[in-house]
Amino acid sequence: MTSPLIGVLALQGDVREHLIALAAAGAVARPVRRPEELAEVDGLVIPGGESTTMSKLADLFGMTGPLRERIAAGLPVYGTCAGLIMLADKILDPRSGQETFGGIDMIVRRNAFGRQNESFEAGVDVTGVGPVEGVFIRAPWVESTGAEVEVLAEHGGHVVAVRQGRLLATSFHPELTGDHRMHGFFVDMVRAAG
């Protein structure tokens, strides 16, 4: 599998930037909005955006059940920012009715680094990737992880990148930097799952 087909969940958030980064990292990338499109992909990116809105739109588009099933069946998935929240088994401070797709044994805190005007960039050293520039926008952090979760990076004493099996998640937005190594890391995960 030289060029895996990787979808970007295109319900809400920074879809275009992920499509560009995935293509630059050697994947064939396409937006995914419907269950039949999800069924065709070798991997999936859940982008940043607003996790509560994403949860509602996933229900509206009939994607929640199919996403949970594919994740449970071993589909490689990479979640950034809101995508990290959507991959968490538990949210510490969910909005009313907010659900996740789950898959990573972690508890996350929404907007942990502050509101929109407290967004920032900082260097983050990610295991398996190296130093990257992390763009943190209303970013969550990981409060705690289960035994199967590998912590890949921390910032300010808080976990900001994790991996559990074929699932990868970061609090920050690598798609906004022009550095495609995080996407390359995920593309390699998809190839290995192949």
Layout of strands and helices, then pairs:
Layout (H helix, E strand, L loop, with lengths): L4 E5 L5 H10 L3 E5 L2 H4 L4 E4 L4 H10 L3 H9 L4 E4 L1 H6 E4 L12 E6 L10 E7 L3 E7 L4 E5 L4 E6 L2 E7 L2 E4 L10 H13 L1
Parallel strand pairs: 1-2, 1-3, 3-4, 4-12, 5-6
Antiparallel strand pairs: 6-9, 7-8, 10-11, 11-12
Can you characterise this structure?
The model has no long low-confidence stretch (mean pLDDT 94). This protein has 6 helices and 12 strands. The longest helix has 13 residues, at 181-193. The relative contact order is 0.19. By secondary structure, the protein is an alpha/beta fold. 27% of the residues lie in helices and 33% in strands. The chain is globular. The protein has a 7-stranded mixed beta sheet. The chain has a 3-stranded mixed beta sheet with strand order 5-6-9. Strands 7-8 form a two-stranded antiparallel ribbon. The termini are close together.
